[in-house]
Amino acid sequence: MRYTPNLPLTTRWGTAVIALALLLSPALLSPAFSAREDSASLLLQKTAGHRKTRLYVVKKGDFLTGIFRSQLGDEPVPTALIRQLNPEIRDLNRIYPGQRLLLPVREMTDLPESSNAIRKESDLPVRAYHIQETDSISRIILVELNAGPEEVLPTYRLLRQLNPDIADMNNLPPGRLLKLPQNFSRPEGTTTAPMQTAVRPEEKPQTDAAAIMKPAPAPSAEGLLGLIRPVISRMKGTITAAGNYFIPLKDTAQVTIDCSLIPVVELDDGSTLLLDFGNRLSENLKGLITQYWTNYAFLSAEELRDDLTSLQGIIRRSRNYTIAHADRPLAVTSKPEILAFPDWVIAGKKAVGGKLYRQGLFLLGDSEKPFPTEALIFLEKNGLIVTEITTGSAVTSPTPPSTSVILDLRELKGIAFAEQLLKTLGETPVKNAGIVIFDQARDGFNLSITADLLLQKGEKRFLIQTKRLPEQFIRILKDEGTEVFLMRENGSGRSLIEELLQRLNIPISFGHFSVRIPEEGSRPRLTSTFPALRAMSGGEPLYLIDFDISVDGLSLLQGRLGGRIAKY
């Protein structure tokens, strides 16, 4: 196998930020190795040159990975090699019965590994690992298995061998079991150090701007993440801004990223983004990575000039998220009608668990205060993640308040309903009170009745009954300053509340009531409007509502209304 000499690799691929570990024969480590954008295919020419092939006829039900597994065993075969052998097939993902495929015949010299480097699956004790939402194959290799830089590629190949049922290692399905080696130790024969691709002082780098990296010195990127980190964290994503990040290129090479200079963002939809603050990555290298991993994307220094611009670039390159300026309020709940007014909205394209992800970015002015705690809790429990931004950083979430309890009158009827309503309003009704109608000393005999509910308000008494009294009794009681109110035995609802309180001279009215955050200023960040009966007894109003409201919604409204809320 021969390679046509080309520009030295070290002059094409930039600074020491990137380390490319080639795990082929020693001849491939020559500085004469080509670094054009099609270098991925050149890496595969060792198996695609004048090698032996055999013919396979596609059968009904066949698919490419299944053919590889049945015909070539567990050893991964690069798709680019199959394309080279079968140029007449335009789309390898669409093959039909009767088509003829040329498959390579594996030779012992194709993969010069030590015989002890990777053992067969049947000989290797394994353990089960549940894939988490934020997992990536790189994180599992480096964190779960604690692999060193020189172990990444052999470990990656081992995981491919142990898990042939997972077709795409870069899109790990959450909740699924992944087989990991039980007692992982450094494989033998994997001591090859990554080749550092630094521009030497005596070399003159190529002037082609698209082919070289720009080695501009820059401070650590950790201090440049500002707002990005909390926003990504609230999207269940991760940012790696220290140590190294390894990108396997199939079974032939790996790229090592210095995350202190090029942070790596991983989102829960599988998107991986490299934040190239110093424009260190060449177009060649980016093309090589995306040739193998379509979920990778890159942001240049021009796209990372400030926090909001950086966020827009990250979100717009993701698979499942969008970011847009909010030109209208977001409806949080319909009853009560609660509207939020963010400046920017990050939204999911696909629903997860029946809900679309939404995060609102609220830009606070110099004099604006953050949301009160109860408002934050309510919004987030109703599907809107809140990030408030002031002077380029996210506001720290406050401590949750104590839980509010709402009075629920819906299960009460008749006298029990009236009694609890009056107690809620601060009154002191007496149940089953004895009322004298005729007195022996005055009338020559005694006669008393038992009142269902008796309420004393100043000089006047109110008798609340569910059974009709004789008209003579009602006149006698009225002459003594006692009003009689007859209510239905199973009465409840708005009409009963209004009639009862009006007869008891307790102010009651129906209306639509609103709260606003902030209370003053031209621009609200949250508003709420709801219908209610408003009763006043003493100095505190009681709002009676006929719809469900969560405990968090109750805390939000009660904190702003200056009164209590009850359901009827």
Overview of this protein structure:
With 568 residues, the protein is an alpha+beta fold. Among the domains are: 1-51 and 107-203 and 218-306, no CATH class; 322-394, no CATH class; 428-485, no CATH class. 23% of the residues lie in helices and 27% in strands. The protein contains 16 helices and 28 strands. Strands 14, 15, 20, 25, 26, 27 and 28 form a 7-stranded mixed β-sheet that branches. A 5-stranded mixed β-sheet has the order 13-16-17-18-19. A 4-stranded antiparallel β-sheet has the order 6-1-9-8, sandwiched between helices. Helix 11 runs antiparallel to helix 16 (551-561). It is elongated. The chain starts with 8 loop residues before the first helix and ends with a strand. Residues 1-50, 108-119 and 186-220 have low confidence and may be disordered.
In short:
The protein has 568 residues and is α+β, with helices and mostly antiparallel strands. Among the domains are: 1-51 and 107-203 and 218-306, no CATH class; 322-394, no CATH class; 428-485, no CATH class. Helices cover 23% and strands 27% of the residues.
Q: Which structural category fits the helices and strands?
A: alpha+beta
Q: What is the alpha-carbon Rg in Å? A: 37 Å
Strand fraction: 25-35%
Mean pLDDT: 75
Q: How far apart, in Å, are the first and last alpha carbons? A: 85 Å
Number of E-type strands: 28
Helix content: 10-25%
Residue ranges: pLDDT <50 for 5 or more in a row? Answer: 1-50, 108-119, 186-220
Question: What tags apply to this protein structure?
Answer:
568 residues; alpha+beta; 7-stranded mixed beta sheet; 5-stranded mixed beta sheet; 27% strand; elongated
